[in-house]
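DM from R.C. (forwarded with permission)

"hey, sorry to bug you on a friday — could you get me a structure for this? deadline for the figure draft is monday and I only need the backbone to look sensible"
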Amino acid sequence: MIITLTANPSTDHTVALDATLERGAVLRAVSSASQAGGKGVNITRAAVAAGVASLAVVPAPEDDPFVLELQAAGLACRPVGPAGRPRSNITITEPDGTTTKLNMPGPTASPELLDGLAEAVVGHARAARWVVLAGSLPPGAPAGWYAELVSRLRPLAPVAVDTSDAPLLALVDRLADAAPSLLKPNAEELASVTGADQEELAADPSAAAKAAQILVGAGVGACLVTLGGSGACLVTADGAWHATPPPTTVVSTVGAGDSSLFGYLLADTRGLPAPDRLRLAVAYGSAAAGLPGTTIPNPAQIRPDLVSIRDLGLTIGAR
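My reply, with the result:
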């Protein structure tokens, strides 16, 4: 069972253009779609598609259209209230795969709602193979809320975290007692918590791995660093690896990182070693990038055999 928490879910509206986005112009869309989403919800969608049991914990009224859509799609959902209606996000995709996102802040979360979300996740954690805390925090949530929740969850189940900005900084500040089993930053997020140069990390997997070593050395179990078209690298206490993705015609990058995270979790539930966990993560992320909007790939669309793995020859003791 994979438990996911999406503290700030959204209805994702995707608009596909037939030309380059031009500020101030009148543009024509070739298609549009809407889907109940958010990072944790996307991971639960991927799990359901792969036949893996998953429960999505979300702040929403039980009868909200967001919740009803998830249930109609076959997703096990645990709505927690009292909560406002989930926000709406807008994604604009261009023919070359360039993606522009407009993310709304979401409704303000009360202390009562945050307590309810925490209790729901903790209450299900003992039955979980993984607990995933994913996405931004809603207005009203303290920046350290994820860190506090990780400290409660660590004795119960492995915890994966995918977040950014203040919640990520607060988590890294508390690695002594709140280090997750898995952290999934991209190059920008990794740079923000290690002081490394973002452009160098994005262009050089070895540099990204060395920066991730800082986090693993501070207690993080594994660091999966997604690098867009450059693939991803994985750092654990035992080593570091880089994965090169298969040739992909990028349609939309929305949800690619979430799919990568699920690929890693799926490989872990199968007992695969670190290089193969990275291989499946990149295969899932690449497949997602080749699909429109926030479409989450299914197992038939995954090609791990086309992902190449390179041992970077790094260990925690060799910084």
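R.C.: lifesaver. The longest strand covers residues 29-37.
me: no worries. The first helix runs from residue 39 to 49.
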